[in-house]
Design goal:
Layout (H helix, E strand, L loop, with lengths): L1 H4 L6 H22 L1 H20 L11 H13 L4 H13 L2 H6 L7 H27 L7 H30 L2 H8 L2 H6 L12 H8 L2 H13 L9 H4 L1 H27 L3
Helix pairs in contact: 2-7, 3-4, 3-7, 4-7, 4-12, 5-8, 5-9, 7-8, 8-9, 8-12, 8-14, 12-14
Length: 271
Amino acid sequence: MSAISTRTGTSTAGWVLADSWTMTRRELAHCARQPVQLVVGLVFPVMLLLMFTYLVGGGRGVDGDHAEFLVPGMLALTMAFGLEATMLAVTQDLTKGVIDRFRAMPMVSGSVLVGRSVADMLQSVAALAVMIGVGYAVGWRWHNGVTSALGAVGLLLLLRFAMLWAGIQLAMVAGKPEMVQAVQILVWPVGFLSNVFATPASMPGWLGAVVEWNPMSATATAVRGLFGNPGGSEDSWAATHAELLAVVWPLALIAVFLPLAVRRFARLGGC
């Protein structure tokens, strides 16, 4: 922090914003130089949506249009995709000595993580836009107006932000790029042990109870309600308070993992 103290003419908050934006531009420049990775990240959830819509089937246990049940669930599941790219970027910066070079510069500690998270969120907005467009193409619609739709998008991005910081923390725990794949596998149970593809009522009782309290299930149920799409016939506490849980779960994850990630990052550099 001694290097930062030599800066004059701008407040500390100003330097935090400036350094974080510099790191965001760095991450976006990396994406521009590696468009294949970005395209794959956008195409993969689209392929899953088309597969479950036309080949495998989805919406088991739902009366009505299965596409209107499936698409909001897939939007929630999309928030779990692509975390490995962020995790790899963090571990590669650590192992290649990039972080050490940044620390030698007069910049705010932690702006690297903030820049990475902002770039990831911008990509997530693009992914949601693509998925919403594909959803419209397969017959999905929202029915509750623009305000409710924007609220649903906000809940989806809140879930992404929470999972992102969990991913950053796990990446620093893994430490090496080759370990990221093993750690990233932990994301899949969260995604598939949810009500994305089927209602908890169509599952065995014990499994349905687990699924209902999954953070992703809460977001999927909440956005279905905001979009005016079918969400099954569950009348449990978790189902009837899905919007509350869709806020509480991500905020709890952020409260745990963001401070852990920032603290671990500081310790890695001996700050």
